Amino acid sequence: MPRAVVRRRDARHPALPRRAPTPPWTRWPAPVLLAATVVVQVATPRTLDLSFLLAAVPPLAALAYGPAATALLGGTVLLLLELPHYDLGHPGESDTATVAFVAALSVLFAAVRSRREAQLVSVRTVAEAAQFAVLPPLPEHVGPVRCAGLYRAAQRGTLVGGDLFDVRRGPRGVRALVGDVQGHGLAAVGTVAALIGAFREAALDQRDLVGVAARLDRRLVIDAEDAEIAETEMAESAGDTGAAVDAGVAGGAGHGEPTELFATAVLLEFAADADELRVVSCGHPPPLLLRGGTVTELAVSPGAPLGLGLAGVAPPEQTAVGLRPGDWILTVTDGVTEARDASGAFYPLTARLAALTEARQRDPAALADAIWKDLVRFSGGVRDDVALLVFAWER
Question: Which of 370, 381, 330 is nearest to 154 (CA)?
Answer without folding.
Answer: 381
